Fold:
Amino acid sequence: MSLSESRLRSILCWVVIVLMGGPVTAAVLLGVLHGDSPCILCWAERTSMVLIALVGLFVIRYGPRPRYLGMAILLGAWGTFMAIRHSALHLARDVGQGFSAAIFGVHTYVWAWVIHVTVLAVIGVLLLFMRRMAPEEGVRELGPVGRFAGGLFVVVVTANALQAFVSTGPPPFIGQADPVRLSLNPRHWVRSFGELQPPRISLRGAWTIPAPEPAAADPDPTHGPLVGLTSLAIERWERIDVPLEGALSGLARDSATGRFLAVTERYGAYLLDGSLGRIVHGVVLDRGFSVDLTPLAAAAFIGGDTLAVLSTNKTYALLVPDPGADESLEWRHFRSTDGQVRELGLGRFQTVRAHQMYVLSLAYDPAARELITVSVPNPRHRQLVVSRFAREDMVLASEFEPTLAEGLTLAAPGRTLADYLVTGAVVSDGRLYAISGAYSTLLVIDLQARTVLAAYAVPGLEHPVGLAARGSELLVAQADGRVAVVGRP
Amino acid sequence: MEFLNFLLILWAAWLVLRRPERERLAFRLLVISCLLMALLFLVGTHGSLVPGVNL
Structure:
């Protein structure tokens, strides 16, 4: 089967009729009948559909020239990009939270996506059956269907122009991000340059988040955001005296058994004895497939024998020692293992206030049966957020940004708790202790009052990565495997 | 500017339908309209040019 030019032009007449009489007319009717107004992105997508129909008119009039084909493909590809970009604003919201009007239950920006992909598919099918591409110069006469397509095009574009005048105004005014309902009363018309005043042009916007770099943090407590801090002296140093796969990145201690859980940047998770001198169990997790792990950053004992390890992207793995573990079944979970550990599952913590922020800490509150993370502020999101997750379902239970208790003073305007970089945390006696790699400061947070009760400088630390409690002591683990022992304030 | 763009499109369509010998001008109007459409979209997405999701 092949497609002659005459047949192609007939088909394109109907393509123009369907495109202009269908979605583009429906968009105008949504405005006239329901007061729907397009946003500035909707306008671009609607214009793209109109331009595709205009290219169809060119082919109907002048035959299938390569530059028309090129323009149609460019418009289809660009329109698809626009629709994906636009839909991305709303696709992941909760049920029923789409933006503006829906047609057959599907919002207009998703229809734009469907239509532009369909246009590309139609172009592909037509090309598949084209007899030849050699263009014949000259003007073709329009048949009755071609004249109808042309007339419909003019009528629908005129209607769009009128709606654009009402909704966005004459040039140089432009469309709005959040338009108001369509009204024929000039008093309600919006004339805006709002979108011409961007905060800044960016490729990824709020998603431009650098990976945390605790090693680059300034360790000097005197440079921190809080002034007049009491110093906690390091009483002595201990050391993890066994070889680990990669640098230490987190440490937890089980008060029931006295054992430690250490994790490394290269996905190692090790259960150590109470002396830090023997590996009881050890695995190296497979970071890829299904739920991807970024470098491990924290660990916690979360009741029973269950071990939780957390990567910087808030993805966790739950492990349990099991002498009867089936090594062949666990092969998919671990790059290496001593054969006595099972993976219970992988999952991702979902946060709200700490969205688009990495974490470097994990603590477990046995009284509340909740896991706790503290966000790592970044240039896009300057917040220090404490997030709590229910142990039962690992879902967010609450979040807060701690306030400062009386007696704590910021060094200068503009300094905030977000200047800290919490790299380790532990819950003890109902309080959250958090060690900051930046400015070597220990924060004591009241989980009920959601307040930083106290802060202490811990001079002498270098790149702390984890925090554990042992009786009246706090153990600050460093990336080099040394553990500073300080008295718990 | 959206209003202006539709006027450009109407002008191009009028040339194609009623003055077909002005194909070159009509196609230039088409190109200008495409560029204006793309520019307006980029203005609308100033905060993040690519989708705000994991890529």
User: Anything to note?
Assistant: The CA atoms of residues 120 and 477 of chain A lie 57 Å apart. The first helix of chain A runs from residue 5 to 34. Chain A has two domains: 5-197, 214-487.
